[in-house]
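Why do we care about 3D structure at all? Because function follows from shape, and shape follows, mostly, from sequence. That is the central idea of this module. The next example makes it concrete: a single protein chain, its amino acid sequence, and then its structure expressed as tokens.
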Amino acid sequence: MKTKNFFSVALLGIFSLMSADRVTAIEEVSTYLNRFHENPSAVMDEVVPKFDLYGNAIHRDLSKHEQEIIAKSRDHFRKKIVDKKMLFRSSEEKSSYVSGDRVQELIPASLMRIERNIHALDAKRLTSGKVATQPWSDDYWPVYKGGLGFRYADKKLGEMEHTKWNNFFNYVKTYPAATLIEQGNSSLLSPSEKYDLLIGANISPYGNQGLTAKMWKEGDNYARTSENGEVETWFGICHGWAAASYMLPRAIGPVIVQTAAGALTFYPADIKALASLFWANFQFKQSSVGGRCNVKPEKLNKDRSSGRITDQECFDTNPGTWHLAVTHLLGMAKKTFIIDANFDYEVWNQPLLTYRYNYFNPQTFKEYVKAENAMIKIKNYKKDKFKNFRSDDTSHVVGVRMKIAYMVENTPVQRVVDHQRYDAINTAEYLYDLELDQRGNIIGGEWYHNTHPDFLWTPDYNLESLSAYDRSVEGEWNSNNAALPDSWAKAAKASAINASLPLGKIISELLRRSTVVE
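And the structure:
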């Protein structure tokens, strides 16, 4: 066997396009900070501008109702992923670390020792970094389209300009999967229909006998319980894609499998969809920092002089935690993690790709390469808008201007070859400061934006993509000419029906074949 490496040279070149120095600068640090000091409350509440790699601004106009729905969905997800009770401090406490917001809760001790000294970090040249392997983009497979039941390759369905779940459901009822197969159009089947055909399950959208039926049932349940009888367009599996994008390798080429209906092709988009769904519904061990914010934006408590949020559960993650997480995971370990921003509807479960930062003196606004040149003694920091929130152990303060690039979702396309060039990447820039003790250790900090990343998480990096259902699988399925073994099919049906979960071993084998020429 030989690994598909015909893009290896191009893959090296593509990283130059993803480097953090391509991030569009919003404005000069001095310009922003002057505006901040003139009207801190207004500037703090500005949404941090986002750009794609070509410099095009990214912006979403949302109604209040849409914002509330997203907030509920985000909180529901955070509630599930936070595996221990968060202990919040009162709004009067200083901005040093609190329970649930310590970097060691994100970075396992087995991975590395945490270096908190800013001068030691500078000596390691960690002012820029990127992941070793770029995560891949995928759709969030919205529920209103039928989730993985959406026939993304069907041009007729793609031309439908509406956002109503019922219209998508009626389409698959009018043009059932069996008809497409009879007409020789199995390539138009949805990812879940192809999966059901592979495992020998019912490919109908009705009932409860396959993955496709489970996909449409989820939308039906939402529609029946919603106030307007519709499914919100934001519901999907972005959290599953975010984890799968780096916990599993990229699907590169198509895979032909044998089914009862004959040969069937899984394209990279089909395989990535199954991987995203697996990680959306797989019960896995994860690490996280940050918490839940159940306060509506208009009811947030804010400091009048700085515009800073004083509801601690809505302030997380502390800039010190953020800075240490980025420099250690991306900078040292070359591993990504997932960021979420409660008050920014454009940052919702996004894997980080690259970062680059400079320091600035928060008093003079001048930028520097090393912290030792930019830091100011706390007693000399006369402009400090956050003086009431500083840790009592703060000796110096230094500003940081960090530019990041992160992965975003894209639209599924039935390509023969998937590649990094098809990924979607956005960029952003954040300003914050770090509080340092007398030895130069990072002990906290303050954000200069309220719309900052406030929830960081990742699955355990050593986890295998295998569920309890995979343990009952016997034998091998390692040939394109062989049908799926009975024990595999039996386990796959049970997993789909009981947990809306594709079988991990099937996904792993599809990925193996997708990246190997036999």
